[in-house]
């Protein structure tokens, strides 16, 4: 099986190499010679260039490696097979141990490869993405962040702390890569549903960028995970002697914004064409920074905007699953539990879609939406209403202020119950049973909070209590459920990982100055296709919005004259693919 895979990849690589040979466009993904400015042992210690025992003898001579490695040359295929075998043997040896122990052991073995040989790492990741995504991404990445100070061995990415104020413009030049395309940044203040994890949140940008490389073919030498350490309010971390971040409370207000401003200026001064993804910022800063930077820099917030696209795609898919025309979306009653960065982003985008489809105003389109936060249903009666939720606040005459989830479900009989609350198990038996009375023939339950323990309900409970005919989606992966009627209850993964790689890729290759709503909408509308198609849709929307400046030697005119097929082709040919390139030394 694996060998078939490898053979398939070799063929794909050969085909890619042939295509790249005749390419008209960019240089970033050419699997031709790679210039390296190091020699000898320095190369072996650099995961970007290291091939371990895979260095051919001629290359060992050229790069001063002769004698630094055992004499036998091991092929890429053999290295690959050896890694997979050690992974499988780890699986066998940890059988019966607690899930957390097994997950962390799997993460460690992958992380060691990541730190040693990125080409091999990304190949095994791409080849086995279904098995490995839950380890390097959600849910295990959450566990990794919780234990990061203890797991830490080698640095990855860059750390900018409150103590670096005034230094960032020079610090950014410490990063060894001349070009950076994608940056994912967090301040660690809301890591998945796990709260404030301070500097330990760096695991999230690392995991997200792994998905960029694996799914969007971004060159791993051009990605940069960033931790903005402005302190933490997590008392347990502050008291932990091994905690690796600043031991001070989080900066607030202007002091906080000055740090983010300085980083953004520094990053875009060095890499004016980079795309910056904001990730896992607490809601107030997620919205504030999006507002502050979206017209000035090429950036987006994945939790607000990426999640909205994925959820919208899920909501539209639900209408299709009901066997109804898409236009019926405007009649769906949707209860959203969680009014934070993700819940509000989803609600706003879905309301916009209804307004567009029905040709009505935004305010009119909010009629079928019900927003619930930690204090229950949001109505106009609430004192101190957050301005961001005002448009969705219901009239208390319809349902009382602060009504519980079960009350709202029983009264509204919604078509969709969507959770982005971060509270595990909040869709309890009573709530799920109430969904049986939904007005839909196929009610949808989306438990989108991460990681697994924070999901609003499990897949098994959803099918058991809400009925076997539901549509189920979750942010973290669950196994499909064997139903009593003999069929299978399918689990759809509703996670922004299906969208952000395409948004970043299309934005990058269009050279767009900013990320527009049109580009985000285009991404949401073609989520069923592969990332290259998402990237192409985003790029074409950037052309429509007339904001492209081109990328490398492809100018804005070239981009605007490409047909849809040519755009997909252009995107595909610019996706990095992990094969060993001949290394050529240059001083
Ligand atoms: N699946 C995905 O792609 C995806 C994307 C983004 C966020 N998420 C998940 O969504 C969750 C929330 O993220 P966020 O950024 O919006 O967080 P947030 O802190 O900004 O918002 C959380 C919201 O949940 C509400 N809430 C808290 N307790 C509640 C309760 N008992 N009942 C009802 N509402 C309650 C809060 O009032 C707040 O409005 C996290 O678990 C995150 O992992 C998933
Ligand atoms: O990271 C994820 O798995 C999705 C999302 O960005 C989240 O914050 O939960
Ligand atoms: Mg996130």
Automatic annotation (TrEMBL):
Its main location: mitochondrion. Its cofactor is Mn(2+); Mg(2+). (S)-malate binds at residues 190, 450, 495. It comes from the Eukaryota. Keywords: Metal-binding, Mitochondrion, NAD, Oxidoreductase, Transit peptide. GO terms for biological process: malate metabolic process. The active site is at 137 (proton donor), 208 (proton acceptor). The keyword Methyltransferase does not apply. Residues 114-294 form the Malic enzyme N-terminal domain. Gene3D superfamilies: Malic enzyme, N-terminal domain (3.40.50.10380), NAD(P)-binding Rossmann-like Domain (3.40.50.720). GO terms for molecular function: malate dehydrogenase (decarboxylating) (NAD+) activity; metal ion binding; NAD binding; protein homodimerization activity. Belongs to the malic enzymes family. Involved in the regulation of sugars and amino acids metabolisms during the night period. This is Malic enzyme.
């Amino acid at each position: 099986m694996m060998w078939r895979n490898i053979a398939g990849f070799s063929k794909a690589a050969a085909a890619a190499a042939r295509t790249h040979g005749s390419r008209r466009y960019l240089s970033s993904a050419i699997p031709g010679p790679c210039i390296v400015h190091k020699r000898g042992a320095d190369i072996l210690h650099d995961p970007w260039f290291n091939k371990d025992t895979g260095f051919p003898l001629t290359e060992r001579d050229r790069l001063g490696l002769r004698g630094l490695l055992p004499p036998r040359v091991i092929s890429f295929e053999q290295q690959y097979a050896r890694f997979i075998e050690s992974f499988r043997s780890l699986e066998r040896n940890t059988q019966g141990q607690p899930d957390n122990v097994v997950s962390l052991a799997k993460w460690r073995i992958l992380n060691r490869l990541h730190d040693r040989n990125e080409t091999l790492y990304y190949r095994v990741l791409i080849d086995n993405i279904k098995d490995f995504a839950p380890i390097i991404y959600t849910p295990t990445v959450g566990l990794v962040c919780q234990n990061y100070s203890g797991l830490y061995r080698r640095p990855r990415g860059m750390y900018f702390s409150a103590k670096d104020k005034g230094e960032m413009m020079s610090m950014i030049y410490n990063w060894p890569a001349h070009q950076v395309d994608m940056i994912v940044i967090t301040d660690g203040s809301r890591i998945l549903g796990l709260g404030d994890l301070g500097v330990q949140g760096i695991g999230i940008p690392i995991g997200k960028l792994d998905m960029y490389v694996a799914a969007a073919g971004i060159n791993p030498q051009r990605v940069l995970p960033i931790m903005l350490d402005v302190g933490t309010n997590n008392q347990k971390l502050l008291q932990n002697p091994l905690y690796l971040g600043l031991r001070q409370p989080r900066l607030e207000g202007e002091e906080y914004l000055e740090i983010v401003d300085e980083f953004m200026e520094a990053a875009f001064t060095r890499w004016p064409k980079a795309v910056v993804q904001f990730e896992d910022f607490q809601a107030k800063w997620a919205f504030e920074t999006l507002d502050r930077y979206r017209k000035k820099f090429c950036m987006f917030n994945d939790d607000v905007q990426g999640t909205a696209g994925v959820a919208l795609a899920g909501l539209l898919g639900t209408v299709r699953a009901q066997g109804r025309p898409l236009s019926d979306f405007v009649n769906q009653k949707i209860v959203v539990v969680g009014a934070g960065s993700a819940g509000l982003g989803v609600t706003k985008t879905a309301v916009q879609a209804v307004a567009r489809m029905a040709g009505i105003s935004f305010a009119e389109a909010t009629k079928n939406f019900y927003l619930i936060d930690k204090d229950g249903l949001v109505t106009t009666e609430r004192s101190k209403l957050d301005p961001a939720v005002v448009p969705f606040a219901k009239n208390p005459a319809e349902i009382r202020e602060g009504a519980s989830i079960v009350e709202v479900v029983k009264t509204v009989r919604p078509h969709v119950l969507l959770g982005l609350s971060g509270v595990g198990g909040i869709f309890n038996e009573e709530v799920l049973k109430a969904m049986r009375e939904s007005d839909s023939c196929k009610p949808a339950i989306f438990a989108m909070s991460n990681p697994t323990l924070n999901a609003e309900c499990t897949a098994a409970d959803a099918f058991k209590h809400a009925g076997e005919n539901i549509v189920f989606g979750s942010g973290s992966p669950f196994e499909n459920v064997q139903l009593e009627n003999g069929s299978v209850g399918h689990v759809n993964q509703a996670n922004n990982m299906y969208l952000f790689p395409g948004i970043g890729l299309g934005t990058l290759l269009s050279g767009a100055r900013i990320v527009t709503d049109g580009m985000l909408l285009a991404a949401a509308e073609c989520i069923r296709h592969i990332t290259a198609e998402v990237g192409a849709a985003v790029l074409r929307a950037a052309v429509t919005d007339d904001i492209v400046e081109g990328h490398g030697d492809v100018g804005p005119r070239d981009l605007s004259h490409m047909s849809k097929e040519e755009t997909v082709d252009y995107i595909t040919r610019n996706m990095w693919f992990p094969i060993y390139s001949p290394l050529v030394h240059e001083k």
